[in-house]
Amino acid sequence: MAWYLNDFLARLRETSAFGGGESSDLEMLRNAFPRLRFIQITRREKLRQAISKARAVQTGLWKVQEGKTEKIAEPRFDRPLIARCLSEAEVQENTWNAFFARVGLQPFHVEYERLCQDYEATIRAVLDFLEIVLPRRIKINRPVTIRQSDALSAQWEQRYRASDVLH
Fold it and tell me: What's the pTM?
């Protein structure tokens, strides 16, 4: 949620509890969160990300779970909304990339598509990065959320790409 980054940094700085005006953003964050690690989740398929967000905006379903499918409205193809969501996704990723470049950090990178493809291995890699050791008896279960992507998403992607040729 890159939208909150600068506001969060400003609020931390205002407290003066984690560093003064001369402290870098990274110093301030590390003072506030001593074991701070950065994980960046990105999505290779930005258009699919935008379509998912456009559907969530329209339906009010931000997280699809079994038994929780109450929509505020039915989704409909809306090219300008999808384009706006696509632009916002790119801005958010660029904001984080600029932040990491500015503070000189390379975050642990998780690709959404890989997470969906091999959830357990990706979660284990994140836990290794965080230096968290799970007891052997702990099993990593599938997420409780259900992927929103379906035939409708594929149809919208096809329509968007076809209309992209016209624009």
Answer: 0.84
